[in-house]
Amino acid sequence: MKRSLDVEILGQKFTISSDADEAHMLRVAGYVDEKMQELMKSSKALARSNVGMLAALNIADEYHRLKASHEAILDRVSQLSKKLTATLSEEG
Fold first, then answer.
1. What CA–CA distance (Å, rounded) separates 71 from 57?
2. Given Cys at both, which of 9, 28, 39, 47 links 33, Cβ 3.0 to 4.6 Å?
3. How many other C-beta atoms lie within 10 A of the C-beta of residue 52?
4. Is the pTM of this model over 0.85?
5. Which residues pair with 8 in a beta bridge?
6. Helix (H, G, I), strand (E, B), or coil: what is residue 2?
């Protein structure tokens, strides 16, 4: 069930809708706001639209790095699981 929630990012109010619970929606909005605030502090000359684009690129980069790391961990767990299953089969 979609729910709507008012959030504030860089001092601007937005209404977002999601199937996620309110706490999750607030965490996501807070994370985006935090990333945009960091960019605003690091470069005062950036326009808000540029801050949004740079924040989106940084968040996408972080997401893809974490996704690749997660996939590598899943592959390693799968390899270890197969090895353990083979070892147990040999002993059993």
1. 21
2. 9
3. 17
4. no
5. 13
6. coil
